TrEMBL record:
This is Uracil phosphoribosyltransferase. The chain crosses the membrane at residues 7-25, 37-57. It comes from Polaribacter marinaquae. It comes from the Bacteria. Keywords: Membrane, Transmembrane, Transmembrane helix. InterPro entries: DUF6341.
Length: 73
């Protein structure tokens, strides 16, 4: 019974709280006909964050290779 309540709470958390911004975005874009760019703005934001983090990671990797400390066991 307790496990069932935990899974119901997790399901309620996602459907009632965490997905509200996506429901709002879906209804706003559908009613206002704002187009592809607005509906995918969140995805583009995540992509930009991913690219910045990847560039940082590659810069740090290059720094460790120059210092000779990479793969030292």
């Amino acid at each position: 019974m307790i496990a069932s309540n935990i899974f119901r709470w997790i399901g309620s958390l996602f459907t009632d709280i965490l997905f509200l911004p996506f429901d709002w975005l879906r209804l706003t874009v559908a009613n206002a006909d704002l187009g592809w760019w607005v509906s995918n703005a969140l995805n583009w934001g995540f992509l930009v964050i991913l690219l910045v983090l990847f560039a940082y990671w590659m810069g740090e990797s290059r720094r460790f290779v120059k210092e000779g400390t990479e793969d030292r066991a």
